[in-house]
Amino acid sequence: MASLVIAEHNGLALDEGTAKTVAAAAQISQPVHILVAGQACGAVAEQAAKLGGVEKVLVADDARYAHFLAEPVAELVLSLAAGYDALLAAATANGKGVMPRVAAKLDVPQISEILSVESPDIFRRPIYAGNAIQTVEAKGFKKVITVRVAAFTAVAKDGNAAIEPVAAAADPGISQFVSENLSRSERPELQGAKIIVSGGRGLQSKDNFVLIERIADKLGAAVGASRAAVDAGFVPNDRQVGQTGKIVAPELYIAVGISGAIQHLAGMKDSKVIVAINKDESAPIFGVADYGLVADLFEALPELEKALDQK
Amino acid sequence: MKVLVPVKRVIDFNVAVRVKADRTGVDLANVKMSINPFCEIAVEEAVRLKEKGIATEVVAVSVGPQGASETLRTALAMGADRAILVKHDGELEPLTVAKILRGVCAEEKPELVILGKQAIDDDCNQTGQMLAALLGWPQGTFAAKIDIEGGRIAVTREVDGGLQSVSLSLPAIVTTDLRLNEPRYASLPNIMKARKKPIAEKSVADYGVDPTPRLKVLEVREPEKRKAGGKVASAAELVSKLRERGVI
Ligand SMILES: Cc1cc2nc3c(=O)[nH]c(=O)nc-3n(C[C@H](O)[C@H](O)[C@H](O)COP(=O)(O)OP(=O)(O)OC[C@H]3O[C@@H](n4cnc5c(N)ncnc54)[C@H](O)[C@@H]3O)c2cc1C
Ligand SMILES: Nc1ncnc2c1ncn2[C@@H]1O[C@H](COP(=O)(O)O)[C@@H](O)[C@H]1O
Prior knowledge:
By secondary structure, chain A is α/β, with parallel strands linked by helices. Helices cover 26% and strands 28% of the residues of chain A. Chain A has helices at residues 16-28, 42-49, 70-80, 93-106, 210-219, 227-231, 262-268, 297-309; strands spanning 3-6, 32-38, 54-61, 86-90, 110-114, 116-119, 122-127, 132-137, 143-147, 162-165, 175-182, 195-199, 222-225, 252-256, 273-278, 291-294. In chain B, strand 4 (57-64), helix 2 (68-78) and strand 5 (82-87) form a beta-alpha-beta unit. Adenosine monophosphate (AMP) is lined by residues 6-8, 36, 38-39, 42, 62-64, 92, 94, 97, 115-116, 118-119, 122, 124-128 of chain B.
């Protein structure tokens, strides 16, 4: 029949994860439509229309979708669900909030964080923090799926889909947006970054994190962190990489003062090249690192900065 | 107000899981089991609400085998008042658990249900949202802070870009994130006291729910192992290796 991809965006720009979710959707059921829910989100719809292989972009432009609250957005998706045999979203905070509500109302299971589409009914997904990979078959019911975008390659931006408005659905009126406190950064987003420099408990303080940031800026990299660094308040929560934080797979991941607990590895072990800097040579992070530097980070990071300056 | 806390028994987060040789699942034999860490945070939050005089009763519920009663004892030792074990052997999908929990809610009439955001075995991150949908309740997922005031609940959520605050009508569903609180260790006297607290036993059939999974697990494999590379002697050597490799 067709698949519907729920767009991830911030009101102005379409998130790169949507292009990767479209890639997954195209392998399950075609044509692919995209739903853009938001307020004054015309620019997002135009970006969505450029994604390769997309036939139609549906735009629900209404104040009730301004902050993507799960309760009204789930109702909107449900109002469109009948026309599709697969509904997909990126496994983001938004996607994870909305899709299980949709699945429950449709009385179907949800398939979380798929890594690949083996056939239109068969998917691989991680369990136990990625220490095991499950192959599941979903047959005989509508598929509701979240996609681990780090595992898919984005479709090209060579499309020219039709853009169509759709009516807003009833708002259950049980939830209200109050405020948001988004951490602003000039640096790239974790999920789209080619290079990530992450710091852990070994950094010891928020002030010392500047050592990480300086390296990141030299490399045009995003800054990540372990849970311990977030819990200790060195960096905001949205920097956490891991099983229960962000899942990333950049070209280069540099882990500094991070031991390499399985929950952290779960979020970064599919990076192309991994570097670890740790003073403990038995730290598990070295077990996944392509290049390990056993050193005190307070000496190694300034040296690294210098070495990066020398061409 | 009554608070219901669903807790799941899972392989302890410190255990390195092993995939079974026949690829049907992971080895659960003689493995240390514990309360799911996010559920532990949920119990802690509920108990704090009781200590603040906001919650009147904290009821823990688990769906699972007889062994899940140990998980419920952990919740009771942390301060839950009583528990319900819905006995079931074998796999359960989040939707099934959510339907059973809907039944429990119909009986218990809680005003707040606090779940973990994710079970660290199946990593599904679904049950709370599904329960919210089945009940027609709002959801405060990935909670870093909650405040109950004037018949509503304010939830600060950990979202991809930072934090978002929402206000929900009650009754509501909350799912916990790591920063909501730091769970207490149960003291020995409280562990002793917990032994006397009641655990009611129920069956899945009591809630009229068909527990048959609808997703078919075809196989479970180990992920491809990454091979460790070598060590470098200095930051300068590291930079030249990375340049050679073309990643910087
Ligand atoms: C339910 C649950 C979910 C979790 N989710 C996540 C998650 O998503 N992401 C995550 O990261 N963790 C997660 N964790 C936590 C995880 O188990 C670890 O506790 C955490 O990753 C440890 O962070 P760390 O490596 O920074 O700290 P530590 O394990 O304390 O390691 C610090 C490292 O720094 C090194 N070091 C110290 N000083 C120096 C120095 N001067 N120079 C060089 N090296 C130094 C030490 O040798 C050590 O290896 C989760 C845990 C649970 C229970
Ligand atoms: N079998 C179960 N019994 C009780 N609660 C459960 C069970 N399975 C899941 N939950 C609850 O739902 C949360 C999320 O689980 P999941 O959706 O499986 O990731 C857990 O943290 C629990 O609070």
